[in-house]
């Protein structure tokens, strides 16, 4: 495959990672090498093979419907960058 | 003073009150203070907490209420959450993060009475095979400080290899316990996926991440796993199975041929021309030792295993790109100081908080999951993952364990592979398959190169064969002394 520099910028934006021109060029070369390695997979015949998403065939179990967690929001919010009145603060998104 | 005792030996002496936990904790802390900084094995030390836990262990021993590992000092990889003690994941992103709760395996080892002395250095978010991607700098290999200890659990491996602690935790997503165990000359076990809970383990690739122990002997790994395993409803993939004593088979008396009838599978694919000749020779010598213990070898075929590296570098980054989206500067971790709007805040926070390797993997993962590429990459990789699992299922009809080198070569020099991610990834060629299938595997020391670097043997088992592979490793260690070899460190206290 060939990955273009524009595609690198596009996926960086999708991943919400700011990337400058120098970094994009550097990452571009390394991603090309990684995808050349990954592209080995394309030659494998996988007709009729069931995809394997997980090591164990586990079924999600249901727990009893009762309260198990206590209110620890103050504790959890202590590690947040910006909090006010129990709410997480972010830049204004609605004018 | 006690640094050359095994974890089992220390636990017995503590229980018999021949040694106090406080005395042992003080010794451990002073050895870490002397030898630790040069190795950079620890990110955070907790001397005060360790001494308090040691006092509690001494009290519990005196009252007769102590857990099986009471007073034994250990360290946790800095990806496992420890309530009140910083958990950084080797990243600037979590440089000041103090978790409000303990990981399940941390709880288990606390309950067993262990004394936590600190958190160990690691590749950032467990992404690396050399411990060079840590925000807190690389870890040095105790056998030679110019070499890497392996990764991503490099700090834990180096701490145990340097006899700073008798045991430590790690996590293994593609070999991150076994490869550093091999490169650092100690034992490292990746249990069956689902045996030890992932609750409180900061997620990298959820379908592969597996917590496990590092120690000097297989017996010590078994004792640690006893405290780490068990069903945990807070991890939906934790398996509800009867409690198992992983050290049980190891307690059976020694005999001349303790492994009589054991069938060792040797995959041709693990013994290719790509292996370092000294590694190949050490593995052959170990196999000859197993023959003396009564085992016989059979050739097995794992043709799809050669694809495990490309499969892994689709699946792991895909899962990582999703898992690491939680680091957005809102609920925890780093937030950029300056930004224009919300999107800009995310972009700058993540650009500043993550290192180069983590960004690369997020980008690979984002790409393979993006519209138009999902079938060609992610789905394709999941299908080849099935082919790899099918190879092993066939092999288990012919053998009880599979052996080979843990890594194709001994430790490499710091800086040697940092510019070539693909070369770095190929280090994990023999370890990744066990993560893709979910079955257990252990690395144990089996030799040293002429240059004095350790060589590791990998013993793989079928699902839930931890007890078997630990016993196989234990019998080898009863007959050999590779696990007793220790690096000569500069200023031994």
Features:
heterodimer, A: 95 residues, mainly alpha, 3 helices, flat, B: 493 residues, alpha/beta, Amidase signature (AS) enzymes, 11-stranded mixed sheet, 11 strands
Question: What is the secondary structure topology, with strand pairs?
Answer:
The complex is a heterodimer of chains A (95) and B (493).
Chain A: H1 5-14, H2 21-38, H3 73-77, E1 83-84, E2 87-88
Antiparallel strand pairs in A: 1-2
Chain B: H1 7-15, H2 21-39, E1 42-45, H3 47-63, E2 73-77, H4 104-111, E3 115-120, H5 154-161, E4 167-172, H6 178-184, E5 187-190, E6 210-215, H7 218-228, E7 263-267, H8 277-292, E8 296-300, H9 308-323, H10 342-353, H11 356-369, H12 374-395, E9 401-405, H13 421-425, H14 432-437, E10 441-448, E11 454-460, H15 466-479
Parallel strand pairs in B: 2-3, 2-4, 7-8, 7-9
Antiparallel strand pairs in B: 1-3, 4-6, 5-6, 5-10, 9-11, 10-11
CATH-defined superfamily of chain B? Amidase signature (AS) domain
Query: Which CATH architecture of chain B?
Result: Alpha-Beta Complex
Percent of sequence in beta strands of chain B:
5-15%
Could you list the spans of chain A in which at least 5 consecutive residues all have pLDDT below 50? none
Radius of gyration based on Cα positions of chain A: 23 Å
**Major beta-sheet overview of chain A:** 2 strands, antiparallel
Helix/strand-derived category of chain B reads alpha/beta
Number of helix segments of chain A?
3
CATH class of the domain at 5-43 in chain A: Mainly Alpha
Strand order in the sheet with the most strands of chain A = 1-2
Can you tell me the CATH topology of chain B? Amidase signature (AS) enzymes
What best-fitting shape of chain A do the alpha-carbon axes yield? flat
**Oligomer classification:** heterodimer
Strand content of chain A: under 5%
Binned, the helix content of chain B reads 25-40%
Tell me the number of strands of chain B.
Answer: 11
């Amino acid at each position: 495959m060939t990955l273009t520099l524009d595609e690198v910028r596009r996926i960086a934006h999708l991943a919400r990672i700011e990337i400058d021109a120098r970094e994009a060029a550097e990452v571009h070369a390394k991603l090309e090498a990684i995808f050349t390695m990954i592209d080995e997979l394309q030659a494998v015949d996988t007709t009729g093979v069931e995809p394997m998403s997980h090591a164990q065939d586990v079924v999600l179990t249901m727990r009893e419907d009762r309260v198990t967690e206590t209110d620890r929001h103050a504790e959890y919010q202590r590690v947040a960058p910006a909090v006010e009145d129990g709410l997480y603060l972010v830049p204004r998104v609605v004018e | 003073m006690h640094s050359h005792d095994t974890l089992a030996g220390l636990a017995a002496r503590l229980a018999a009150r021949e040694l106090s936990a406080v005395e042992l904790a003080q010794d451990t802390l002073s050895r870490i203070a002397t030898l630790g900084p040069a190795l950079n094995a620890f990110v955070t030390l907790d001397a005060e907490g360790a001494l308090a836990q040691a006092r509690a262990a001494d009290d519990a021993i005196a009252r007769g209420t102590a857990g099986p590992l009471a007073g034994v000092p250990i360290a946790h990889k800095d990806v496992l959450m420890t309530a009140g003690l910083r958990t950084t994941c080797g990243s600037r992103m979590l440089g000041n993060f103090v978790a409000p709760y303990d990981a399940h395996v941390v709880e288990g080892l606390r309950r067993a009475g262990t004394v936590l002395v600190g958190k160990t250095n690691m590749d950032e978010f467990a992404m690396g095979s050399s411990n060079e991607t840590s925000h807190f700098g690389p870890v040095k290999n105790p056998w030679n400080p110019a070499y890497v200890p392996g990764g991503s659990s490099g700090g834990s491996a180096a701490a145990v290899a340097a006899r700073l602690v008798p045991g430590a935790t790690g996590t293994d997503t593609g070999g991150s316990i076994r490869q550093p165990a091999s490169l650092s000359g100690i034992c490292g076990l990746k249990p069956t996926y689902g045996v030890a809970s992932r609750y409180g383990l900061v997620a990298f690739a959820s379908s592969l991440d597996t917590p496990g122990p590092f120690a000097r002997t297989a017996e010590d790994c078994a004792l640690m796993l006893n405290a780490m395993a068990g069903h945990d409803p807070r991890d939906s993939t934790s398996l509800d199975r009867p409690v198992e004593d992983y050290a049980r088979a190891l307690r059976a008396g020694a005999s001349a041929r303790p492994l009589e009838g054991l069938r060792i599978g040797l995959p041709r694919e693990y013994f290719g021309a790509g292996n370092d000749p000294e590694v190949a020779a050490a593995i052959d010598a170990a196999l000859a030792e197993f023959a003396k213990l009564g085992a016989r070898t059979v050739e097995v075929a794992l043709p799809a295993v050669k694809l495990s590296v490309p499969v892994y570098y689709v699946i792991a980054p895909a899962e990582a790109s999703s898992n690491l989206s939680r680091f957005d500067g809102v609920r925890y971790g780093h937030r950029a100081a300056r930004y224009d709007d919300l999107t800009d805040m995310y972009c700058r926070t993540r650009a500043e908080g993550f290192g180069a390797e983590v960004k690369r993997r997020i980008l690979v993962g984002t790409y393979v999951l993006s519209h138009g590429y999902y079938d060609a990459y992610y789905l394709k990789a999941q299908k080849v993952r099935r082919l790899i699992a099918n190879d092993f299922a066939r092999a288990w009809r012919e053998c009880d364990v599979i052996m080979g080198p843990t890594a194709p070569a001994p430790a490499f020099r710091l800086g040697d592979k940092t510019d070539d991610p693909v070369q770095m990834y190929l280090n994990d060629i023999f370890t990744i398959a066990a993560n893709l299938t979910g079955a257990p595997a252990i690395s144990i020391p089996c030799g040293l190169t002429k240059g004095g670097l350790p060589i590791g043997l990998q013993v793989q088992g079928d699902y839930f064969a931890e007890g078997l592979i630990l016993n196989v490793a234990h019998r080898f260690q009863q007959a050999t002394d590779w696990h007793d070899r220790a690096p000569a460190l500069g200023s031994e206290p």
